[in-house]
Amino acid sequence: MEDSKKIKNIIQALGEHQDSKAAIEVLTELGTNSPDDEIREMTAQTLIKKNTHESLRVVLISKGKGINDLSARVAMASINELLSLKDKTEAIKILDDTIKLHSDEEVRNTARSVRALMTFSA
Amino acid sequence: MQIGKLNLQRTNTVQNTTAQKKGNTNKLTTNPFGVSFKGNVIQADVFVNEKVNKDKNSNGIVEKSKLFASAVVSGINNFNESFKSRINSIVSFGKKITTDVCDSLERIGNTEISFDMEGIKNKLFPDRQYSVKNLSKQPVEDLKTMWQELTPEETENETETEENAA
User: Fold this and answer.
1) Number of domains in chain B
2) Where exactly are the structural domains of chain A?
3) Are residues B72 and B105 in the same domain?
4) Cβ contact (<8 Å) for A1 and B140?
5) What is the pTM of this model?
6) pLDDT digits (tens, 9 = 90+) for A3-51
7) B140: exposed, middle or buried (C-beta count within 10 Å: 0-12, 13-18, 19+)?
8) What is the ipTM of this complex?
9) Do B7 and B23 reside in the same domain of the chain?
């Protein structure tokens, strides 16, 4: 088995892990900072699937992570995952707060765009 | 009359003594050494037969038959000895095997056999360790170390950049 496949399995296992808080910390620390686009993409999708306040904050607010990632592939995959969520309440709440309160304009603009997409898709 | 009686008695006593003497002489002839044996007397003729058979051919045949008989007897003895030695060696070999088997059985009885089934499974199926099902059962810290082991260069670069930034 290749190392990338092993890492993907670890990410998937962390997504299903009972210790959600610790798993999110590891995903944020190692996954979102990975130089591999594929790993970052999968990490963002896993964090969004968790659909908790802590996991969604990482991919919606943090600069260079999730929907704000410099890689279009990672950003688009994160947006698609957000749109496919059944319960979008928490994600919309965080996006609204970001649009209102975030200091970085680029982050605010991205949040606004995603918020609009979610409104249309709902 | 009395004189006549006396003569008769005397003659009778003389006759008795002579008869007794004759009996003694007969005994002496059967036992020429005059020694009486209390135990068993050898009945066989122990003396050398004076009538020597001078026929050489018959002597040779007898000697040959004796030699043959002695050879047969010695052969039987040798066979018995070799058979006994072989039997003894077989018996000792069997005893050794039984003792060895007993010792090994005791050792087997005393030894505790334990199998590290997880280790064996991981060796037989190396990818099994990294299956999602197994990984999700492990603690998060272990998963973190496993991830870091799989990407040693990345973690080193991260630490270097952190140090430079500081």
Assistant:
1) 3
2) 3-121
3) yes
4) no
5) 0.55
6) 889 999 999 999 999 999 999 999 999 999 999 999 999 999 999 999 9
7) buried
8) 0.88
9) yes
